Amino acid sequence: MRSNTFTLIPVAVVTVLLGIGLLAGQPPAVAEEATASAQNDPMKFANGAKTWADTCARCHNMRDPKSLRDDQWRAAIAHMRVRAGLTGEEAENVLVFLQQSN
Ligand code: HEC
Q1: Which one, of 21, 45, 23, lies nearest residue 34 by Cα?
Q2: Maximum CA extent, the chain
Q3: Does residue 69 line the site of ligand 1, with CB under 6 A?
Q4: Tens-digit pLDDT profile for the chain (102 aa)?
Q5: In the prediction, which pLDDT does 15 show?
Q6: Which of 83, 95, 97 to mutate to test the pocket of ligand 1 (most atoms within 8 A of CB)?
Q7: CA neighbours closer than 13 Å in the CB half-sphere of residue 2
C-alpha cells in the first residue's frame, strides 16, 4: 500500500501543475503573439503607447523602445505583464507599440 501512495503523489503533482500551467498559460500566449494584423492595427499602437506611458515607468526608468529587439521585447513583456498587472490585450498593445518603435 505504501508504494501505491508514493507513486500516486508525483501523478497528482503533475496533474495539478498541468492544470495551473493551462490556466496561467493562456493570457501570456496571447501577449507573446503580436500577429501581423495586430502589428498593423493603429488602435493597438495608440493604446499600447498610452499603457506604456502610464504603467512602465512606475517601478523603473522608462526603457527606450530602441533598447531591445522585437524578440527581446516579447520576452520582456511576458515578464513585465505580470509585474504591471496588464490584461492580455493591454500587454499585446504595449508589445505592438514597442516593436513598431524600435
Ligand atoms: C511592478 C513594478 C514594475 C512594473 C509596473 C514594470 N516593471 Fe519592468 N522591471 C521591474 C523589475 C523589478 C525589473 C528587474 C527584475 C526583472 O527583470 O524581473 C524589471 C525589468 C525590466 C526590463 C529589463 C529586462 C527584463 O526582461 O528583465 C525591461 C525591459 C522592463 N522591465 C520593461 C518594462 C515595461 C515595458 C513595463 C510596462 C509594461 C514594465 N517594465 C513595468 C519592475 C516593473
Answers
A1: 45
A2: 63
A3: no
A4: 555 555 655 444 444 444 444 444 444 444 455 677 888 889 999 999 999 999 999 999 999 999 999 999 999 999 999 999 999 999 999 999 999 999
A5: 47
A6: 83
A7: 0
* Atom 31 (ligand 1) nearest CA: 80
| Cα 36 to averaged position of ligand 1 atoms, centre (Å) | 25
What's the residue count for the chain?
Answer: 102
Residue 84 CA: nearest ligand 1 atom is 5
Question: What whole-number distance in Å separates Cα of residue 89 and Cα of residue 5?
Answer: 43
Measured distance CA(23)–CA(35) in Å, rounded: 22
If one counts every other C-beta atom within 10 angstroms of the C-beta of residue 80, the result is 21
Query: Residue 37, class by beta-carbon neighbours within 10 Å (0-12 exposed, 13-18 middle, 19+ buried)?
Result: exposed
Tell whether the torsion through CA atoms of 54, 55, 59 and 65 is positive or negative: negative
